[in-house]
């Protein structure tokens, strides 16, 4: 059984999209007009990768006064327009090398996917990985989108679930509460294929079961959600919110 599960996980890994990309790959993408490079760091004004736009994460979070999901989605649509995201864009997100800011990157990726936009990648190792390789390709000059984005959101309300959903579906759902930091090295580069597959194997994740990721905040939960959904290819993954 364990052999079959490992084989299944390897299949997922083989067909995973570019969930995490290297600085070398990003450098190639800088020539692509479809690239939208987003910096979620609070230090954007100090320095950022050349051509990166600042994505203010606070504009992608729900206000405590915002009771209707439709109102929240309208805000997301506005930000997508302002950032110049089109249906055929490739969005690459990066952060500084702190856990808090890295959570912002995976959270933004989650919000975009929650609203139907799937072509999202995260720069593995973040800003410092880029500086180590291409320190001449940074800037303190603010960048703006060339045109308004044309992508129209398609909100999926099923990616966020409440505790009562777990109660009703306890036999068919696996709750993941593992510390996401175990999946990264100290420089916030993702661990290797074998270690990620072991992470999924230890949790006894099975293809036909739903997976609910839970952590102290939705920001923290978004990290393991992103790894499972984008890197390992589990598509029935949700975030449990309290």
TrEMBL record:
Pfam short name (any one): Rhodanese
Per UniProt, the keywords (alphabetical) are: Repeat
The yes or no answer to whether the keyword Repeat is present is: yes
- Keyword Repeat in annotation: yes
Q: Which residues form a coiled coil?
A: none
Q: Where is the Rhodanese domain?
A: 31-139, 182-240
The lineage, from the top, is:
Bacteria, Pseudomonadati, Campylobacterota, Epsilonproteobacteria, Campylobacterales
Recorded protein name is Rhodanese domain-containing protein
């Amino acid at each position: 059984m364990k052999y079959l599960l490992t084989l299944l996980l390897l299949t997922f890994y083989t067909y995973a999209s570019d969930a995490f990309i290297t600085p070398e790959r990003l450098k190639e993408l800088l020539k692509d007009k479809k690239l939208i490079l987003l910096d979620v760091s609070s230090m954007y004004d100090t320095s950022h990768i050349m051509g990166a736009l600042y994505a203010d994460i606070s504009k992608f979070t729900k206000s405590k006064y915002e009771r209707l999901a439709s109102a929240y989605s309208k805000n997301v649509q506005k930000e997508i327009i302002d950032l110049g995201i089109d249906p055929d864009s490739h969005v690459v997100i990066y952060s500084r090398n702190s856990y808090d800011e890295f959570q912002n990157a995976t959270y933004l990726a989650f919000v975009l996917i929650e609203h139907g936009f799937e072509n999202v990648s995260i720069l593995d190792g973040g800003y410092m990985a880029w500086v180590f390789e291409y320190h001449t390709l940074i800037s303190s000059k603010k960048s703006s989108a060339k045109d308004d984005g044309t992508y129209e959101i398609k909100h999926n309300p099923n990616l966020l679930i409440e505790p009562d959903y777990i109660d009703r579906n306890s036999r068919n759902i696996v709750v993941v509460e593992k510390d996401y930091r175990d999946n990264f090295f100290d420089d916030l580069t993702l661990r290797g294929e074998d270690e990620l597959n072991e992470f999924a194997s230890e949790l006894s994740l099975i293809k036909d079961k739903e997976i609910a990721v839970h952590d102290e905040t939705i920001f923290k939960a978004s990290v393991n959600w992103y790894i499972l959904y984008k890197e390992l290819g589990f598509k029935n993954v949700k975030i449990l919110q309290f």
